[in-house]
Amino acid sequence: MLTRNLALAGIWMAMTELSATQLIIGFALGYFVLWFSPGLAHRSNYFRRVGQGLRFTGFFLRELAIATARVAHDVLTPTPYMKPSVLGIPLDAETDAEIAMLAIVVTLTPGTLALDISSDRKTLYIHAMYVSDPEATRREIKQGFERRILELLR
Q1: pLDDT band per the 50, 70, 90 thresholds, residue 41
Q2: Euclidean distance between CA atoms 138 and 86, whole angstroms
Q3: Which of the 8 DSSP states describes residue 142?
Q4: What span, in angstroms and rounded, lies between the C-alpha atoms of 150 and 17?
Q5: Edge-to-edge strand order for the sheet containing 85-90?
Q6: For the domain bounded by 67-153, which CATH number is listed?
Q7: Does position 20 have pLDDT exceeding 70, yes or no?
Q8: For the chain, which residues make up each domain, given as ranges?
Q9: 10 Å Cβ neighbour count for 109?
Q10: Cα dist from 16 to 13, 21, 31, 104, 143, whole Å
């Protein structure tokens, strides 16, 4: 279904102009064409996955904005609010893709950095700049990023 959607987006882009904007518009139009095609929407998980991907992207962008504002506030004020800590996050993620995506998202978020994975692949070690409660930080990562990544990839 993704291939069909990309093909429809490519056709749209070829008929209009070669630009990223037209590719996005073509992708959205292709998505709706496939959605309303008889029998296709009910036979594929593609439509559910696209929705999950969009929700994950929205969640990540919100978390990115919050973390950026927190770091910017700390940099611009004379009093530092940092409480840095290295934490071990117990993982429910099992595959290389799940663990790698979690580590990437944590590292892309300002104020956090994925450091290492344990040899048994059950714990992800991170450095976080703002840890007033280690358990709350673990919960935020597990219930926020990890849960959504597992929903997206499984």
Answers
A1: low
A2: 11
A3: I
A4: 37
A5: 85-90, 123-128, 112-117
A6: 3.30.70
A7: yes
A8: 2-43, 67-153
A9: 22
A10: 5, 11, 18, 35, 43
